[in-house]
Design goal:
Blueprint: H1 9-37, H2 44-55, H3 83-97, H4 106-118, H5 125-141, H6 151-157, H7 159-174, H8 181-196
Helix pairs in contact: 1-2, 1-5, 2-5, 3-4, 4-5, 4-8, 7-8
Length: about 200
């Protein structure tokens, strides 16, 4: 069962907002588990669960990797057959750099960019990437962080710098470089705003 936005925009919007609340509850559980088990708790099953929560009742393939082509504006994500391996590589990078990378938002920025770049799901990729990003921020800080409006919500409210930073990371990647500094700085700014707004 799913509701299409074109058929009932108001119902679709209500379901989407309720899904975000459910996703946040799940995210809080993921933070608690991650604080107990360590970074190994950040895995594809976590991503599947966060995606399923984000798109419940608005997409029929929530929590499953896409098995068809998808297009996102000017970005053409990788072929769907590459998605499982790319996600495994992505998670491996997070695990390998966890104890090495010291800047508090770099790995979160990498997660935010890379998940959007891979676009592993049919629907809800941005919501899932923002949740994964915030999960890593909380794990890096050792707590579910306080604030009236958390980083994913602040991204939704201030999208142009987010899009610009994603595009900058894409350009670096196309040039054979890994650089998410602009996105990491943007996240650091939003995190400071969140923590000041307790």
């Amino acid at each position: 069962m799913s509701v299409r936005e074109a058929d009932d925009p108001d119902l679709f919007a209500r379901i989407q907002e309720q899904n975000l609340l459910r996703q946040y509850d799940l995210l809080a559980n993921c933070v608690e588990i991650g604080l107990t088990k360590g970074i190994e708790a950040f895995d594809k099953y976590t991503l599947w669960a966060l995606n399923a929560a984000a798109v419940a009742n608005i997409a029929q393939f929530g929590g499953r990797f896409r098995e068809q082509p998808i297009y996102v504006g000017k970005h053409i994500p990788p072929h769907f057959k590459e998605v499982p391996n790319l996600v495994d590589q992505f998670i491996s990078v997070i695990h390998e750099l966890w104890t090495i990378e010291t800047y508090p938002t770099t790995l979160a920025a990498y997660a935010l960019w890379r998940l959007n770049w891979i676009h592993p799901f049919i629907e809800g990729n941005g919501r899932t990437a923002r949740a994964a990003c915030y999960l890593l921020i909380c794990l890096r800080h050792g707590a579910l962080l306080p604030g009236k409006k958390i980083v994913p919500e602040r991204i939704r409210d201030d999208r142009q710098p987010y899009y610009d930073a994603l595009e900058a990371a894409d350009r670096h990647w196309e040039d054979g470089q890994f650089n998410v500094e602009l996105l990491a700085a943007y996240l650091a700014k939003l995190l400071r705003q969140q923590l000041l707004d307790v």
